[in-house]
Write a structure and sequence with these properties.
Elements: H1 2-19, E1 30-33, E2 44-52, H2 57-63, H3 65-68, H4 71-81, E3 88-96, H5 101-113, E4 119-121, H6 126-139, E5 143-145, E6 163-165, H7 170-183, E7 188-194, H8 200-214, E8 221-228, H9 233-243, E9 249-253, H10 257-269, E10 278-282, E11 290-292, E12 304-306, H11 319-326, E13 329-334, H12 343-353, H13 374-394, H14 402-407, E14 412-415, E15 418-421, E16 432-437, E17 443-451, E18 457-461, H15 498-523, E19 556-561, E20 564-571, H16 579-590, E21 599-605, E22 610-616, H17 623-629, H18 636-654, E23 669-671, E24 677-679, H19 685-689, H20 703-707, H21 715-731, H22 745-754, H23 772-781, H24 792-802, H25 810-850, H26 853-860, E25 868-880, H27 883-888, H28 892-910, E26 916-921, E27 924-929, H29 939-953, E28 969-983, E29 989-993, H30 995-1005, E30 1012-1015, H31 1016-1022, E31 1028-1038, E32 1042-1052, H32 1053-1056, H33 1064-1068
Parallel strand pairs: 2-3, 2-4, 4-5, 5-6, 7-8, 7-9, 9-10, 10-13, 28-30
Antiparallel strand pairs: 1-3, 11-12, 13-16, 14-15, 16-17, 17-18, 19-20, 20-22, 21-22, 23-24, 25-27, 25-28, 26-27, 28-29, 30-32, 31-32
Helix pairs in contact: 1-5, 4-12, 4-13, 5-6, 7-8, 9-10, 10-11, 18-21, 18-24, 21-23, 28-29
GO biological process, one term: chemosensory behavior
Subcellular location: Cell membrane
Enzyme class: lyase
Amino acid sequence: MGFLVRICYFLFVSVAKAQLTVPPPTPSTTTTIQTVPISSDPLKTLKIGLLLPRYNVDVAEESGFDRAAGAIPIAIDAIRKNHILDGFNFTFITKFAECKDYLSAGYAVDLITVEKVDAVIGPTCSSSAIHSGIITAYYNIPTYLWGLVASHQLADTGRYPTTVRLTADSAELAEAFISFMDEFEFDRFAFIYMLIGQQKCKYIGDDLKEVIENTTLSDISMTYSHQLENSSVQMIRKTMEAAVKRARIFALCFPNDVDRRNFFLVIHDMGLHTDEYLYVMLDTRGFGFGQRAKSKDFMEASGTVPFYIDQSDKPDGRDQDAMAAARMAISIDFDATTSVGDIADFNKMVIDRVHGWPFYCTDCNSSAVAATYARYLHDAMYLYALSLNKTITKNPNNTRNGRAIARNSNVTFQGASGEVIFNKERQREAVFVVMGLNGTNSVVKFSTLKRDQTGNMTYYPEGREQRIWETRSGKQPRAVPLCGFDGNSCPEDPIRSPWVIAAVATGCVFAVITVFTSIYICWHKGGSESSRSFQSGTASVATKLTIETQLESEFFTLYYLSGEPVVASKHHIRLNLDKNDHADMRKLRSLDHSNLNKFLGLCLDAEDCMYMSIWKYCSRRSLQDVFLRESITMDSFVMCSLMRDILQGLNYIHNSFLEYHGHLTSSNCLVDDRWQVKLSDYGLEGLRKADRLPPKKLLWRAPELLRDESVFGTKAGDVYSFAIICSEIMSRKPAYDLDSRPETEEEIVYLVKRGGSTLCRPSISNMAEFNPAFIHLVRDCWSERVRERPTVDQVIKLMKTIIPNSNVNLMDHVFRMMESYADSLEQEVQARVRELESEKRKSDLLLYRMMPKQIAEKLKMGSSVEPETFESVTVFFSDVVSFTTLASLCTPLQVVDLLNRLYTNFDQIIDNHDVYKVETIGDGYLCVSGLPHRNGDRHVIEIADMSLEFIASLQGFRIPHIPSETVQIRVGMHTGSVVAGVVGLTMPRYCLFGDTVNTASRMESNSKPNRIHMSSEAYLAIQKFPGYTTESRGDVIIKGKGVMETFWLLGKESVAKRTVRSGFRRNMG
């Protein structure tokens, strides 16, 4: 059998050489660490084989060597700290199997037969683990799996007796999802997933189907399942168009967060993010509603950011859209909550530790973020140590007994991936959490899914059970719409029962009698002949809104017809309509032109006994409203386009059966949302003749029509009305601009009607933006002599010759205007942004001078700054010798100037060292090194070098007003631990606390002029660095400390030979 396995091994190696498409794996790395033995016996060495991907980009971010291997030394630290396997050394042999089945199997044989490893950790993908697990079972070598190994096949302990898995089982995830469905009585769903490089979603889907088929406790069906080839808009849209015909609950699985976010953007654009739909995201990574942060500088404490945030180099700016769609989603994911430190800190340590023992990786990417499953690798190593320790306690010779070690893996510990609990079947007991957004768009935990005492996956809500539907106004979605997926399965209305129908029919009879009686009373005769299509039907009528002023409310009202706003024009007349009237209205309804407002029909207001003609509603209302209320800037092109639209509408009417409008005013020239003018209130001559119009409505009427009221309208009269409207458009003021004229409306109507040599017309002088020929054309249109007025056709032709670019579309012109405005606005915004950035840099610079940059950044982001303990730092204190005497020789301003010059010099020196200036109090100067940035043991030499440079800089320092006096300082330094934190809300300060600060202060107060006084702790710390000259001062009585041995720091060769440029000679002149 061993011979056959060796043959298989060589075959695997041959295939690997022939088919490997990734870069050649780096040679296996073997490193050893010598641990301290518990006894005098030689330490035993444990060889651990690692099967990891490195060059496979599809899984590198999840479990790649560069991003995950650093978890191994962190786990070794924990093993040593807890005294597990104290009598053993560790050797690691790394093989880059790249999640390839043939490489994983071949390298597994290599590790066992050639390298003689005691255990294997990996591979990190389900398919590869299935193949290598059989080989390790044959050789009885323990195998610990982590990463993307979710397949339920690996739970078969008979087939894989030496395999232990740290990640959640996809079958348990499926059971958790089914439990969730049962909890809310959902009986069907659609499954949409994607496979790109990984097979995780495939195994989740397979196990989901298997659980549904084998369960007997619920009747849940997967009505639709589809694999997305990619996350393009077309692919997702096509899939969802088919899916919504089969389901309203959607289970989702995506291999990466970019594709997941793209999916939610598409459903947002499709309008599928209403409370009718529910999206359940299934995963085992432990991220829940988050995604792995791509920048280690901006990640949250959990190491994640919300999945709807765009982390690309060039964000698309659609985070709000993605979040709006995400409000309709929840996640069911493995509970990886841990209390072991900060996950973000752990991830940073993983990246840092890969460069040291045992891997010493020199080409690993230091700027990368830790792998998704790095915490599980840590726990795999730690679990192996626990299991082996438990095994050898019973039998010291079982270091390679995979079955025995695997059986002893039923332990419990708090790991980096959360609480790790293994049952007797060597399966990790999975706990899943349901998470989503609440009403304030914060990610919250809604419930927990875990096995109860009977072994069934059970739903445990947290807080109010209906809190999960908070973003849907507390409304639970339906698995099947009320009227079915096609809208044709609405439940039968109970009012359709025979008894109810009979009662309604009886009521209708009485209603009909009542209606006809009302009509008889109003018209003094029997009901008129009905017409099939001129009355508005039984549409719902909502709140009425007046369109213009209180006066005009007598003529127009806004209603809603079939959910659409319509305008009702009132006709205060009682009139019998005959068949000819009905025929004319049918023709009127058939008129259809882009510059005509659609006539919808005629209805009777029984309350007021009057007719109302119904017309479509235009959002911008009338030209009068545009002039009076719109704040848009109009140029001559826009105004001419409005006039051209009026002419096109008139031309259509003049060539129709109507022949003329008869009542053209700026109030019935309506403007839609595309700035297109539509003529309204045409036709219905029989009703309009009887309407009594106020003088304001007659300002557009031609003089010949004012004189002969028997004539309703003419084509020439429409041309006159058009000219009056042109004057309004050109002046952007109401007709005749009554506010600036002495005449009233009645007087103007009288003057127009009278005629004569001096005509009363609107003023259109001083219109420099218009071609003079066009102004003459308007005056021709309102000529007193009808024969001198041009026809509409002639006006259209003349306008084409007068106005250039008359064929350019108005919307195109408006868009160009908006683009030009946007360009100028963009330039202004860029200028403002540059100013803002400049001011921000100034404020940041000022802030960074007040406290450390790391602390300032946290405060700017609104994060709390927790007090932090620093085990080893060096604190520096100094003061000016005989400062009181010097101050007595100076004025207060000169004292301030003296200290400013002195400390400016010191500040320049500090910039050259890893030292943080804490504060200055009078002549006292306090600095520290080793915080907030930890620098190992270098803090003592940073302070020492700085102190020597301080004293050297004073050699050239002179006081301008007392040149004979010199400045000397006393220096004290001490090494120890401190606690640092931000204190206060108003003018917050970054302060130090601890006995180390007090001791450093005592060193300074007991020092001598231009001498550096060190504690014994600082002396011992500096001894690690050669080149510094010190001298013992002997025992000194220190206040509050007793007798202490202290030392003088005399100098350093490099400092003594260096010329210090303090800048003071230039400042002092």
